[in-house]
Amino acid sequence: MFAAVARVVRAVSVPVSADVEDGYGLAPAELVERLLEAGVVGCNLEDSEGHVTLKDPQRRADWLAEVRAAAGDALVINARVDTFLFGSGDPADAIARAKLYVAAGADCVYPLRAPTEFLPTLREGITGPLNMAAGPSPDSVAELARHGATRITFGPGMQRYAMGAISDLAANLRA
How many C-alpha atoms does 160 have within 13 Å on its Cβ side? Predict the structure, then answer.
């Protein structure tokens, strides 16, 4: 994965942030070293175990603090909050986790799949940048910004949109 990210970094002229799941079981110092060797400027770090259950928030915050200590100011740490994926879906739970992660040194938090109607509540309860995933339309970005998102990502959304367009084109050509 780090070799693939390094190829992306070499191929583009914009800063690259890598989604490194939950850190692949690496010690914080090794994770940071490998990210910096790959040339990224930031990373997303998940809040769940095996894409099924939430991690213990205090242990995760302690781990994020170690990542921050190893990285210094060299990486932007975007701490994902998976409450809306694998937890209760309660904004109060997401805010509690986010506060721990910000206190541990995360530059921003990412309550993945938080419903748009919860964004004002999340914005009110979370200090620092709030990352949200936008859809492929400009309206999606504007709506998220209106509701308090301060950092926008597209995740795999653009890739899925492009794959759908290619699939539609291929179906039309076959017809």
Answer: 7
Q: Residue 108: which residues within 8 A CB-CB, separation 6 or more?
A: 76, 77, 78, 79, 128, 129, 130, 131, 150, 151
Question: Can you tell me the distance from the alpha carbon of 56 to that of 42, in angstroms, rounded to the nearest whole number?
Answer: 23
Judge contact between 34 and 76, C-beta under 8 A.
no
- Comparing CA positions, the residue from 121, 116, 108 lying closest to residue 81 is 108
List C-alpha distances in Å: 85 to 40, 100, 108, 160.
Answer: 26, 18, 18, 19
Q: State whether residue 47 is helix, strand or coil.
A: coil
The average pLDDT across 99-109 equals 97
Q: Are 38 and 24 in contact (CB under 8 A)?
A: no
Most distant CA pair in the chain, distance: 58
Percent of the chain residues past pLDDT 90, beyond the cut: 81
pLDDT digits (tens, 9 = 90+) for 29-42: 999 999 999 999 99
Give residue 149's pLDDT.
92
Confirm if 151 and 131 have CB atoms less than 8 A apart: yes
| CA 19 – CA 39 distance, rounded (Å) | 13
Residue 45's contacts (CB-CB under 8 Å, 6 or more residues apart) are 20, 21, 22, 23, 64, 67, 77, 78, 79, 80
